[in-house]
Amino acid sequence: MVQTAPDPKLIRMIALAHSWLEEIKAGILMKDIAKRYGWQTLMVRQRIQLAFLSPAIVGAILDGRQPEGLTLTQLVTSDIPLDWDEQWAALGFDAAP
Predict the structure, then answer these.
(1) Total structural domains in the chain?
(2) Which domain of life, per UniProt (predicted)?
């Protein structure tokens, strides 16, 4: 079963994760990113993995077609596989495109 509406918190965090990844590539430290948000470094570390989601999964999330139980909390507390095909199964999607 899929949601029918996009999750704004999840979408915002995916966008932030991509932004943070670019900052890290430019030499900004995770601890400095965390400090900017008043967070612990662990919170940034948990969320940065969203930048490595499959583009098809990101598209599904943007369209609100993610599995019903897929939440930001679930994503940031899970070990998301780097392999895009494995991500589909691990995150509860029916099948990879």
Answers:
(1) 1
(2) Bacteria
